[in-house]
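Operator note (shift B, R.M.): manual run for Putative hydrolase of the alpha/beta superfamily requested after the automated queue skipped it. Running by hand, logging everything below so the morning shift can see what happened. Input copied straight from the record, untouched. If output looks odd, do not overwrite the archive copy; leave it for review.
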Amino acid sequence: MITITNETFGNIPTLHVVKEEARKEKNLPTIFFLHGFTSAKEHNLHVAYLLAEKGFRVLLPDALHHGERENQLDKQERDLAFWEIVLTSIRELEVLKITLEEKGLVTKENIGVMGTSMGAITLYGALTQYNWIQSAVSFMGTAYYEIFASGLLSNVEQQGLTIEQQVKEKMFEQIKPFDLSGQLNKLEGRPLFIWHGTEDKVVPYSLSQKLYSELAAEYDETPWKLHFMTEETGHKVSRRAVLKSIEWLNQHLCKVSS
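Run finished. Output pasted below as returned.
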């Protein structure tokens, strides 16, 4: 039986999805699933359920200003807080991992991270910081922080909001250390699955295509650790992509029994 419990890890509201009989096992391969902008942890339970059926432990945290942590920010305020949310989620990944270690529920040898849209953007930043992430799955995200941030700023300004140059510069300074595109060596050949719809109007498909092209040389000796999957669809993850990514994680993160 698959159980779903709402728990708090390091003050972070998190759904914990796992087979009941394996709940206290230490060596289960563990997946952190990071949701998208304006979404919440509950919105990805279908993916977590399928992973748990395969024998994974899955943790789905609410990002800052989302789900149980949502506050009274209006749309414009939350749009402007995008990078604050991403950087907070990167820091909180470490908190979640340490908390699970203290509970004896995880070892650093079997941790994967999946993310959708904003969650995938967070994932790419986390890969610059944490070598304990053993495998990663990006659904319609981007590793090109500075390029994407420039596009977001343009969209906000087109809505009539003026942003001071000093504010812009501070933002770029804050995100630069987490921009994986300028430090691809930090991947260190770790397994990476990239999925992106070619018709995506929210996060440009071209950036995932560009990343894959740049990484192909990095993974020349281990091409099976890098997978790029596309479909003719927009900003919505397909069932086919979900199933393929789970199959891929089952091969690359750790052999688990269903």
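Quick read of the result: The first strand starts at residue 2 and ends at 9. Strands lie at 2-9, 12-19, 30-34, 57-61, 111-116, 135-139, 192-197, 226-231.
Leaving this for review. - R.M.
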